[in-house]
Amino acid sequence: MERVISGIRPTGNLHLGNYFGAVKSFVKMQDEYDCMFFIADWHSLTTHPTPENIRSSVKTILSEYLACGIDPEKAPIYVQSDVKQVLELYLYLNMNAYLGELERVTSFKEKVRKQPDNVNAGLLTYPCLMAADILMHKADKVPVGKDQEQNMEMARLFARRFNRIYNVEYFKEPASFYFADKAVKVPGLDGTGKMGKSEGNCLYLCDDEKTVTKKIMRAVTDQGPTQLNQEKPEVIQNLFTLCELLSGKEAADYYNDLYNRMEIRYGDMKKQMAADANTLLAPIRERILAYSSDDALLEKIMRQGAEAAAERAEKTIEEVREIIGFRKI
Ligand code: TYM
């Protein structure tokens, strides 16, 4: 059975970008694939070196994962820092990753701009740790959003390079997986760029009904089209992308038609989006509350997930040590 792995950093609550970019695919895939999911707490140190309470952030994300429908009986969920073998693979991959190519990664360049006082080596080698997460499980498919495309390319590059350097056919090249067959970039509610924790433009899965409605009703728009069949400016295109995700293609087509005829009322479109967002989120919100108050269950899921992941990881590390030529331990 094909293997699937994916992860999320515990640096806040899950938002619609995480949901449509990755979590929705996870939930669908867990019935058909050999899936594992994890919480990338080591990765979060690259931007948050002194986390206030990493353990509670991890539990928050875990509760939200579960609330979205990930079933640990089908797909073990583990915490990255519970599986130490990944560090050894990270080290080997670091030895075969070159400064020039790491410096060219767009997200690294972005971070250099955003946190000039903390351009740490972990940021630079972020793609190596992510590749270690993936290659550790010999994953075939990795559900991710569009923003992870370059990191996925690096993971494939490192897999190929490992095989070439050691003259083996060991690692497979993992493919990105998108639930709608093309990479998803969920736009932010401010109409610019992607929805993201650090951009402050998110609709969170745990937002209450009033907040959801308020945020969507305030999403940035313009004065409306001034010509028939006019090309949409970016903010409006983004609103339509969100509309299609929340309310479906038929609804988006309906409003598109109105837009083309210059009859659109953004307020109506947003009202429908808010109603559909609340229909989607109400049961998730309820389950988040239930899971987050069941500490014993969360601990059990993390422990079982760590055991399942470590077993697989240990096997990979033993094989990798043998390929490189280290002694068996
Ligand atoms: P992170 O924590 O930034 O985001 C988690 C997942 O959510 C997706 N995502 C989006 N998709 C579409 N539109 C958006 N606006 C949006 N915002 C976030 C991301 O693409 C991602 O799939 N490097 C990863 C974590 C990671 C990982 C891995 C993922 C570490 N190791 C191994 C897969 C496999 C990250 O920072 O995701």
Short structural description:
The protein has 329 residues and is mainly α.
Give the helices and strands, then pairings.
Blueprint: E1 3-8, H1 16-29, E2 34-39, H2 41-44, H3 54-68, E3 77-79, H4 85-95, H5 99-103, H6 106-114, H7 121-124, H8 126-135, E4 141-143, H9 149-165, E5 175-177, H10 209-217, H11 234-247, H12 249-260, H13 266-292, H14 295-324
Parallel strand pairs: 1-2, 2-3, 4-5
Helix pairs in contact: 3-13, 4-8, 4-14, 8-9, 10-13, 11-12, 11-13
SS strand fraction: 5-15%
| H and E string | EHEHHEHHHHHEHEHHHHH
Write down the CATH class of the largest domain.
Answer: Alpha Beta
Gyration radius from CA atoms, angstroms: 21 Å
CATH architecture of the largest domain: 3-Layer(aba) Sandwich
* C-alpha end-to-end distance: 29 Å
Strand order of the largest sheet: 1-2-3
Helical content stands at: 55-70%
Uncertain runs are none
Structural class: mainly alpha
> Quick one: CATH superfamily of the largest domain?
HUPs
Number of helices: 14
Average pLDDT, all residues: 96
| Cofactors, ions and other ligands in the entry | tryptophanyl-5'AMP
Major beta-sheet overview: 3 strands, parallel
Might you state the CATH topology name of the largest domain? Rossmann fold
Structural domain tally: 2
